Each structure stands twice: as C-alpha cells, then as structure tokens.
C-alpha cells in the first residue's frame, strides 16, 4: 500500500521533469493549481455581483493586503511540505520576528527600515535553522520537532515580551505606510510578496536543488540512494521558509496595530491549510509555492467575501474546512486516475 | 564504517539532548512567565507559620491571564491597595491562556497554602466554582473582580462600573459623533462574551426606547474574537456590507484598536466615527491623527485597588458580603456592597485629545 503510494509520484516526477525541461508557459500553472484559480475567480465574481463594493478600489486593496502575509508564509511552507516535512512553528516564529520589529523601532526610533527588514529576515532564518538542524540530525518527523519549537518559540516570546505590546504609533509612519501605499494600484508589500513567491516557484521548478526537494518528498530513501544530499536540502528548505516567515513578521508589524506575546498564535494551521488547498500534497513530492500562495489568497478572500456579503462568520470556518477536504479528495482522485493510466501504459 | 555509524549515533544523541534542553527551556520560560507559581508556593509555604505567629494576612490575585496589558494595570492597582490595606504578602498567579479550566490548579494551590484572600477574575463563572468552594471551606475569603464567578462561590464581586452606564456612555459618544442620526454597527469580542453581551443588550434596549436615538439604526453586530487580525477583517466587512455606515461601537479594547488601525489606513478615515472601550496607550495615536474623537474606559487600577480593600474588609470581618455592608477603600473612600454582593468602583472615564496624555495604561 505505502509502496505504491510512494513509488507512483516518483514516476510522475520523472515524467514531468522530462516534459518540463523545455520552457512552456502553460506549464507555469500546472493542473494542480487550476481548480484553485478557478474557484478564486468564481468566488470573486459572485461576491462582486452580490456586493459591487467588494471590488471597489478600497475593497480590492484590502483583499490584496489581507492575503499578502499569508501568501508569503504559504509559499515557504510549500517548500517544506514538498519534502514531506511540515513546519508548525511558523506562527510562533512570526510572533517573535514581529515583536523584534516592534522592539527595534521602540529602542532605536531612527533605525533605517531596511535594517529592520534584514534583522527580521535574519532572525526568521535563524529560527528556521534551529528547526532544520533538529529535523535533519534527529531524524524525528518534522511535525514532532516543530510542534516542540512551536511552544519553545512561543515561550521565548512570552518571556521576552511579557505584557509589553508595541503599537502602530510607536513605529515610524513610513514603515506603517509600506503596507498601505500603492504602486500602479497594487500595494507595495503585495508586489514584494509576488516577486518573492515567483522566485521561489522558479527555483522549485527549474533549479536542480529545487527538483531535489520533490525527489526527497516523493521517496526520501530513494533520494539518498540516488545521491541527493537530503539533509542539506531539507535544512536549506527550513532556513528559506524561516527567512520568509521573518519577512512576514516584519510586514505583520507594518500592517497591524499591536505586536506582543501572543502575536501570530494559531497561524500555522491556516498556513498549512492554504498550502494544501493550493495543491501542495501533504505527503510531499508535488505542489508549488505559487499554488500555495494562491491557496492563501483563496482562503483570505473567502473570509473577506463572506463578511462582505454579511454571512455569519461561524459559517466561514466550515467553508474553509470543506475546501480543505475537497482539495484533498480531488488530489486523491487525480492520483488514483494517474495510477490507473500509468498501469495501462506499462502493461 | 563503524566509526561513521558511531559518529552518526553521537550526532543523534546530541540532537536529542539539544531538543530536550530546548523543551526544558520552554518549560522554564513559561514558569518564568508566571513568576508567581514558584514564588507563591515559596511565599505561601512560609505564610502559614507567619499566620500562626502574628495573624498576618496574605492576598493572592488570579487574573484571567498573565501578560495582558490591561491585567497588568489592574494588578498594579491591586498591589498598591494590598500594601495600603495592610496585607503582609501579596502575590499574583495565573494561567497564560484565558481558558475556562486553566485557573483551577492555581486556586487549589492557594487553598493548600492557606492564603487568606483570593481575588479572582473568573474565566468561566462555573468552571472555577468547585475549587473556590473548597478554598472557602479552608477559610479563605473570595473576591471576584473584573469578571464574576458564580455568586454561590464567592463573597463579593467588585465590578468596574454599572453595566448600564457602560452601555449608555458608548451610545452618547457615538450619537454626538455622528450627529444623532445614521446607521451604526457594533464590533464586539467573542459572540459569547458575558460583559460585552450585557452591554450590547442594554444598548439595544436604549436605542429602542430613548427618543434621542430614534434616528440611529443598529444595522449589524459582528465579532472579532478579540483577535487583531479577525477584528481587522470584520471591520473591513462592515464597511463593505454597509455603504451608509456612519459609526462603529467597539466595546472591547482589542476590537477598537484593530478597527482604528484599519480606519486610519483606509479611505474611511475621518468619515466613519469609531468609539467604544479602549486603552489610552493603545489608542493615543488614533486620537491624535483624527481617526477617533472620543472613547471611554474605567481606570483599571482602581478596580484592583478596591478589590484589595474589599478582601481586607472581608478578612477582618468588617463586611460579610451582604447587601448594605460598608467599608472604606483607602483613597477611594467609602464603598457599599449592593445586591448580590456587587461592589461598584466608579463611573467610566471619557478619553479624547484633551485629556489622553494624562493617562498611562
């Protein structure tokens, strides 16, 4: 049972690597992402028909800003999940970097904004390195390790922050404006996020180490036999994800009013949900950062759409849950069909 | 070959040790965080002997959760009150999360330590009840503050303000700010928050019955769960779903701050009025940039202060918690126990550009 499950995606990858070697714009959004994109477009269309203000300039801006932070985190998580790991500590890591941002501005009011960004990214990468080191050396499933670091990071945050909170008023206006200013109609931080996500996706698709991540996720043992430096690749994935979470933490401090001991609590599940909805299979081996980001966009848009048409928010969680189940079912059906086709082709 | 496998083994052991030490640090951090838990047991271990020696009184505050800025101000007032009232030891213990059952173990520890007065803000009126009854059986006096426990299991409840006053002051403010007519909405905490729901109920009654508010229409009630991000999105949803919205009342500190942050960065700034209950430190920048004209709150320090004196009066036997009992709460003067053992601290304070800099909490 497990054998067929793990072996088939591997064959799939070999096949897709062969077909994707040549540049093909249509393959940029593979089949895995198209249902999500379709769902997103339909959602936006129907909400717009129900309430035209949904796509008014302010509504559109809110839509993009709400999704930005989650999109960055989902893209990072896609890297990790595609290696058949998971990082559950991202909510706590975001809390720490957001609080670092608040602290830096409160302690050094004239600190250049770029330095704060670099510090946040560096701290996130450091936290990711801790996760990566533990996962690759201890050989314990990442879920257990990062569940531990979820609490460790949160504990450190509680100890560090205590009841201190930093508010938007404590930070320079220029920093707060980052998350609301527009460039050709698109918020600046959304543009940053899109660039970052595009880079990560291209890396996944076209670079050798990027392809290695999928190979590891499809079959870790085969990847070792094949000579892929599994430990190093997984470690790098965790560090990259950490850096992205660090970036998200800084942006969080720019966007929201307060950062403190509980900032980011519970975000990890939303991030994993976004990645799964965006076509990143939880068993590893498939899915892209772009897909995960679109998943994040879909989930935040659902919340926005449902509040915009005045649907009770208790239904919102049920809708999100239904989406996760639907995407897993679709994925499972597609896998089964692919398996049948492959069997037909080989026999 | 064998050397490499040994190398890997030691690496593994090292990693496990590292993980374990991290896990321990985690515990350490949480314990540090509630400095109270180890400290108290040490402090209260000593206090029974002290009690035996000279009848010294100890008081312990159990807030809804630690690391909450609002709670810190309440406890600051409580500490001051406890010193002035003559308690020899005062402690703070409490959970890091505000869940229903998280306070029980702390109450049990206080019972065992023989603490004379327990001051508690109940996360759930009934979940703490059994533990509090046990504490009372052991001779402790129970003062509920901020959020009431079931009246059967406490002696008195010190309430910030009269619930009705909180409701009316918020309606007065919004009415002034929108010129007495138009659509308004409420952005609350969780859908089952006792305090907020009581205030909202009074507001709805007042809107329906008071002719001054006949042109004001409450069009929507939404819940941000006292979460920055959720409140933020609920505020956006309110704007989109109600194009004619003139004002928002947010009777919760998290909600009003998140809504203010959203309004201040949107096209609605200055066009849609916002008021409610907020902390001056959190709201200062929004009052100064014109997003918010005026909001209200009680002085949280006074709540802790009066609670400490109420505890002292109970322990001394000056009051028993029945209606009509009177005691003196230090600088705050005389307070009377009302029906159901409720003690009221004082009227809410309005904060605006003129006075906000005088407050630091």
UniProtKB/TrEMBL annotation, chain B:
Residues 33-54 are annotated as: Disordered. The keyword Heme does not apply. Transmembrane segments: none annotated. The keyword Heme does not apply. Gene3D superfamilies: 3.40.50.2300. Keywords: Signal. Its main location: other. Residues 59-317 form the Periplasmic binding protein domain. Residues 33-50 have a biased composition (Polar residues). GO terms for molecular function: carbohydrate binding. One of its GO terms (cellular component) is outer membrane-bounded periplasmic space. It is found in: Cell envelope. CDD domains: PBP1_ABC_rhamnose. It holds the Pfam family Peripla_BP_4. GO terms for biological process: rhamnose transmembrane transport. Residues 1-28 form the signal peptide. This is Rhamnose ABC transporter substrate-binding protein. It comes from Tessaracoccus antarcticus. The lineage of its organism: Bacteria, Bacillati, Actinomycetota, Actinomycetes, Propionibacteriales. The gene is rhaS.
């Amino acid at each position: 049972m497990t054998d067929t499950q793990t072996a088939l995606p591997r064959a799939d990858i070999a096949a897709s690597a062969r077909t994707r070697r040549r540049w093909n714009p249509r393959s940029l959004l593979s089949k895995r992402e198209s249902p999500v994109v379709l769902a997103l477009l339909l959602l936006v269309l129907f909400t717009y028909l129900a309430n035209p203000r949904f796509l008014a300039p302010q509504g559109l801006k809110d839509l993009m800003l709400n999704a930005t932070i989650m999109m960055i985190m989902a893209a990072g998580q896609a890297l990790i999940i595609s290696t058949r790991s998971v990082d559950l500590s991202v909510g706590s890591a975001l809390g720490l970097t957001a609080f670092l941002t608040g602290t830096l501005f409160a302690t050094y009011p004239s600190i250049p904004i770029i330095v704060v960004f670099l510090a946040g990214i560096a701290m996130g990468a450091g936290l990711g390195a801790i996760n990566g080191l533990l996962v690759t050396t201890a050989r314990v499933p990442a879920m257990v390790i990062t569940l531990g670091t979820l609490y460790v990071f949160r504990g450190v945050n509680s100890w560090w922050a205590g009841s201190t909170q930093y508010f938007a008023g404590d930070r320079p206006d220029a920093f707060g404006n980052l998350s609301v200013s527009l460039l050709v109609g698109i918020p600046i931080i959304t543009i940053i996020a899109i660039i970052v996500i595009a880079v990560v996706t291209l890396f996944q698709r076209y670079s050798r180490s990027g392809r290695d991540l999928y190979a590891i996720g499809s079959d870790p043992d085969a990847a070792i036999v094949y000579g892929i430096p599994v430990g190093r690749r997984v470690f790098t994935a965790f560090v990259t994800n950490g850096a992205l979470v660090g970036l998200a933490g800084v942006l969080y401090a720019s966007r929201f009013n307060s950062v403190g001991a509980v900032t980011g609590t519970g975000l990890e599940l939303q991030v994993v949900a976004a990645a799964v909805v965006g076509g990143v299979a939880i068993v590893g081996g498939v899915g892209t950062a772009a897909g995960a980001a679109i998943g994040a966009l879909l989930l935040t848009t659902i919340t926005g759409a449902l509040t915009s048409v005045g649907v009770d928010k208790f239904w919102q969680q049920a809708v999100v849950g239904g989406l996760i189940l639907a995407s897993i079912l679709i994925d499972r059906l597609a896998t089964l069909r692919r398996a049948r086709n492959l069997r037909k082709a080989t026999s | 070959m064998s050397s490499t496998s040994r190398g890997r083994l030691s690496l593994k052991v090292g990693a496990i040790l590292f993980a374990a030490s991290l896990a321990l640090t985690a515990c350490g951090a949480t314990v540090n965080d509630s400095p109270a838990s180890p400290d108290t047991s040490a402090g209260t271990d000593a206090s029974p002997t002290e009690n035996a020696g000279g009848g010294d009184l100890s008081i312990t505050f159990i807030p809804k959760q630690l690391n909450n800025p609002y709670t810190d101000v309440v406890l600051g007032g409580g500490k001051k009150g406890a010193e002035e009232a003559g308690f020899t030891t005062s402690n703070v213990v409490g959970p890091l999360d505000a869940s229903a059952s998280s306070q029980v173990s702390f109450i049990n520890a206080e019972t065992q330590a023989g603490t004379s007065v327990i001051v508690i803000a109940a996360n759930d009126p009934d979940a703490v009840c059994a533990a509090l009854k046990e504490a009372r059986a052991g001779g402790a006096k129970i003062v509920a503050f901020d959020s009431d426990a079931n009246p059967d299991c406490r002696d008195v409840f010190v309430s910030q303000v009269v619930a009705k006053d909180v409701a009316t002051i918020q309606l007065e403010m919004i009415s002034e700010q929108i010129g007495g007519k138009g659509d308004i909405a409420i952005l609350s905490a969780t859908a089952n928050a006792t305090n907020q729901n009581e205030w909202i109920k009074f507001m709805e009654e007042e809107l329906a019955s008071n002719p001054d508010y006949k042109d004001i229409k409450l069009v929507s009630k939404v819940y941000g769960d006292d979460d920055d991000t959720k409140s933020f999105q609920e505020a956006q949803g309110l704007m989109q779903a109600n194009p004619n919205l003139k004002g928002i009342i947010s009777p919760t500190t998290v909600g009003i701050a998140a809504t203010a942050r959203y309004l201040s960065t949107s096209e609605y700034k200055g066009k849609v009025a916002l008021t409610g209950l907020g902390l001056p430190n959190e709201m200062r920048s929004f009052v100064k940039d014109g997003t918010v004209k005026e909001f209200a709150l009680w002085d949280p320090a006074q709540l802790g202060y009066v609670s400490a004196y109420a505890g002292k009066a109970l322990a001394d036997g000056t009051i028993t918690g029945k209606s009509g009992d009177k005691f003196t709460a230090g600088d705050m003067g005389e307070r009377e126990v009302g029906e159901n053992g409720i003690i009221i601290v004082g009227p809410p304070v309005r904060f605006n550009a003129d006075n906000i800099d005088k407050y630091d909490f």
